[in-house]
């Protein structure tokens, strides 16, 4: 497993435990007391480390390559998931995936970004950065959900929309704006979870939801810390300062009223226990859909629009 720099003290202790366990098995000596002592120390350091993560460290955790991705969530939580491809205008976008499936017995539309798990899949999915056709596919799926009265679940994990020239030529900003509009026009429940990075318009294009939830160590921001630093300080070296100033952590955003719920992660982050993380996310989605299903379409639409109109409003 890939390890972050600030996790090294814990990783070293865990490696020592593994070494002692192998010695115990091979040499027939009893090292259980020493193993227990080191395990307790590792657990104590892990708790201390993750209880006081800085904004910059949370950025690193949110980007951890071993965090569960969109395909992992659909595999574990969505039965009979059937991907739907293409925007019916230009082509297919592999960064933004979506389709039909059953979430705990309830039919729904699922949409989200997929970053990829290795070099091959990361290139295939363009590192989770969607082009205009991806957002137009999302619009198509949202309209499909409304037509058949299916709730929408979105899983956000993107550094942002693809910034290439060809994306701009095909109307990237218009596609994102239309996707946001599609969220606001939908007359079915929309639940969104930020499972990793929530970057700029690329994220909000599918996260303009009735309920917006964030995993404890995920991030959600108008721009990446590196991008912000390069603009304000003319150097990406100030990314740590930018991360702190951007107020991009789940805790900051909950306090500001941008998101509704923080979903607690296993100690040490989602990458240490992916299955448990996905099951807990599933529980939160189920509860949110249960509450929203009690409202009719027009009420959902009005409440959703009002929710976003009120953001940033000051007296």
Write up this protein:
With 315 residues, the protein is an alpha/beta fold. The protein has two domains: 5-52; 58-309, 2-enoyl-CoA Hydratase, Chain A, domain 1. 50% of the residues lie in helices and 16% in strands. The protein has helices at 8-27, 32-50, 55-62, 70-77, 119-124, 132-147, 165-169, 172-185, 200-207, 225-232, 239-246, 250-256, 274-292, 297-309; strands at residues 78-83, 96-103, 106-113, 152-158, 190-199, 211-215, 219-221, 261-263. Strands 1, 2, 3, 4, 5, 6, 7 and 8 form an eight-stranded mixed sheet that branches. A hairpin with a 2-residue loop joins strand 2 (96-103) and strand 3. Helix 6 (132-147) runs parallel beside helix 8 (172-185). It is globular. The N and C termini lie far apart (49 Å).
Brief sketch in words of this structure:
The protein is α/β, with parallel strands linked by helices. It contains 14 helices and eight strands. It is globular.
Give the structural class: alpha/beta
Q: How many β-strands, per DSSP?
A: 8
CATH top level of the largest domain is: Alpha Beta
Mean pLDDT: 92
List keywords for this structure.
315 residues; alpha/beta; 2-enoyl-CoA Hydratase, Chain A, domain 1; eight-stranded mixed beta sheet; 16% strand
Question: Which SSEs are present, and which pair or pack?
Answer:
Layout (H helix, E strand, L loop, with lengths): L7 H20 L4 H19 L4 H8 L7 H8 E6 L12 E8 L2 E8 L5 H6 L7 H16 L4 E7 L6 H5 L2 H14 L4 E10 H8 L3 E5 L3 E3 L3 H8 L6 H8 L3 H7 L4 E3 L10 H19 L4 H13 L6
Parallel strand pairs: 3-4, 4-5, 5-6, 5-7, 6-8
Antiparallel strand pairs: 1-2, 2-3
Helix pairs in contact: 1-2, 4-13, 6-8, 8-9, 10-11
